[in-house]
Amino acid sequence: MTRVLALLFAAVTLLAGAGQAQAQLEYGAIMGQRNFGSGPTGSGPIPRTTVNFASNYSPGTIVVKTNERRLYLVMEQGRAVRYPVGVGKPGKQWAGTTRIDGKYRAPAWSPPAVVKRDNPRIPDVIPGGSPANPMGVAAMTLAGGEYAIHGTNRPGSVGGFVSYGCVRMLNADITDLYDRVSVGTSVVVTSR
User: Which of 32, 38, 53, 187 could form a disulfide with 80 if both were Cys (CB 3.0 to 4.6 A apart)?
Assistant: First the structure.
């Protein structure tokens, strides 16, 4: 009897894992992400680094340079921490000034209406921690819209024009940024 239960448990576990893997593959195909390494969806991320950054922005401001596919956290003395990011696909990009209005670890994700319209097979909610959840380990929502700065379970997409307008970061990088900023932090998104 114990052996039968062990085999049943192993079969259920294997099938659940296969279901998650299938959901992840289906989600990637729905979102047009067939190459998770460097290539068309991403140019291969450069590592997070501290760089010179001459600007008029106050320390603590987040600056996203869409064309560079880089996010800068402005620091004192003309320096910034530079992170590689994935940004909006052509036609899904935006520019402007906003602020962080929420911070969440392992967030669940409900696709916005535009994503659901383009990809009706996506579930209405993908739980936090699921390999099919595009938010990764953390997300910081932006005021005034449906956008966020978030992690990803598709690291090869970082460095590309891949999203519906969100700013996508490696999970290690969103964790680092998450710990450095607070709700209310200014975010400036530029087209150049």
Answer: 53
